[in-house]
Amino acid sequence: MTTDQISQFEKKVIIRSIVRTDFDKIIELQNICFPNMQPWNIKQLESHLRLFPEGQICVELDGDIIGSCSSLIVNFDDYLEQHTYQEITDKGYIRNHNPRGENLYGMEVMVHPSFRRMKIGRRLYEARKRLAETLNLKSIIVGGRIPGYHNFSDKMAPREYAEEVLQQNIYDPVLTFQMMNGFTLKRIITNYLSDDEDSMNYAALLEWNNIEYKPNINKTHYKMSFPVRFCVIQYMMKKIDSFEEFATQCEHYVDVASDYKSDFAVFPENFTMQLLSFLEERSPSLAIRKLSTFTENYVALFSELAVNYNVNIVGGSHFVEQNNRIYNVAHLFRRDGTIEQQYKLHISPNERKWWGINGGSKLEVFDTDCGKISIQLSSDIEYPEISRIVAEEGAQIIFVPFCAEDRQTFLRVKYCAQARAVENQVVVVTAGTVGNLTHVDNVDIQYAQSGVYTPADFSFPRDGIAGECSENTEAVIMAEVDMENLQRYRKSKDVLTFRDRRTDIYSLQIRS
Fold first, then answer.
1. pLDDT (tens digit per residue) in 337-383
2. Which fold has domain 227-492?
3. pTM confidence score
4. Residues 6 or more apart from 90 whose CB is under 8 A from it?
5. FRET pair for 422, CA 20 to 30 Å: which of 68, 173, 326, 340?
6. What is the per-residue pLDDT across 327-345, written as a single tens digit (0 to 9) for each?
7. Is the dihedral of CA 208, 213, 216, 219 positive or negative?
8. d(Cα 446, Cα 433) in Å, to the nearest integer?
9. Fold classified for 9-209
10. What InterPro entries does the record tag this protein with (predicted)?
């Protein structure tokens, strides 16, 4: 046969990650596979891709999606073994995805009925196993449906039914398949999935163990605590004579942070305006443009400090010129040498009037070796929608470099920072400037009391303050927060302001 003749018999099966253009096909496939159950919605699918794209896999045949599976990573020890599907998947949004977790949790596997003899399900399970091995995860856990049980519910208990399936005396389309793929039965879960009538709301808790698992290799092994230490720098604004003098001051603070084995050193907003004290430009708008010429020096300095001292640095903010416009930009200098930027979104009247600052248009969440973080410059923390969105995208730490000229301005930042910590059950770290720059217009006085704020509950400091500087004086504080404790608190404590939001009657959406 010729190549053209052969090609008419070829089928192209591709196993790949799900992308956004697949969403409509995924929802259509769910409606076909599970006609009596609520399918994913677009926001849930978008959340899956934001938080754990590697765990969302599909099978494509000649351009059509004929199967898919969805997963997240958890520390299963954080959950009760009698958990519900809604709890373990965060109502389908997987905002509880924990990159430091030990277990891959399988949310769903589905195969189009017309293609169920092509081993599509097996291919998806093999892809999951490869993912668990690649990420060095301890096991895969699933809450498996037992859809055949309704035919036997009047004759035997769910556990008896599962045992009969395991002995191959009864065929169950899901449990039999999982057993053949190396999963072992741990126990029966009650009230797992409320709309699974065929399973009578029961499920089989099943586990596949990764025999290649190596503790402490390329990931953080599960432990009872995951402390993150912050060095907050309440920076003194005073006259200097050169960039080298500025660099010496900054290196001193980073050195201190490193000596105390801090994970983050946090500088305030606008602290590079100290450079204006020797630039001799009285016009505020022209001074800012002169300041922006130091951008390369600033980035080179802090990138080198982060690597040399092995500290992630939230480098306050610096004014950057792009396309003849000035922006107030926060920088994250990771200790591995990589750099990120967050543009200030909400520009104050003073910034607009004196310096002609423009607002950014993109809200970022950054990965670090201590988890996902967000940076919100000063007044950005006063808009609760911003913190809620980044928390939904997995941020557990929000850094707030700020610059306030008087006490009431400072208190707006502090009170809003504490509110965001309570509302979203996150850690909020603020760092402000103090002192005076008598030679610089509109930066002449400063007021701050920097701090590290937590949710207010039994698991944390009584007043929700992990550490706080003395008011309005040059200072450095160290504070440590247990992020594993924060994870557990988000799931199991009495007040669950983040998990128990009424997303059935309200929601937030960011315009990209």
1. 899 999 999 998 888 888 889 999 999 999 898 989 999 999 999 99
2. Nitrilase/N-carbamoyl-D-aminoacid amidohydrolase (3.60.110)
3. 0.68
4. 96, 499
5. 340
6. 999 999 998 889 999 999 9
7. negative
8. 6
9. Aminopeptidase (3.40.630)
10. Acyl_CoA_acyltransferase, C-N_Hydrolase, C-N_Hydrolase_sf, GNAT_dom
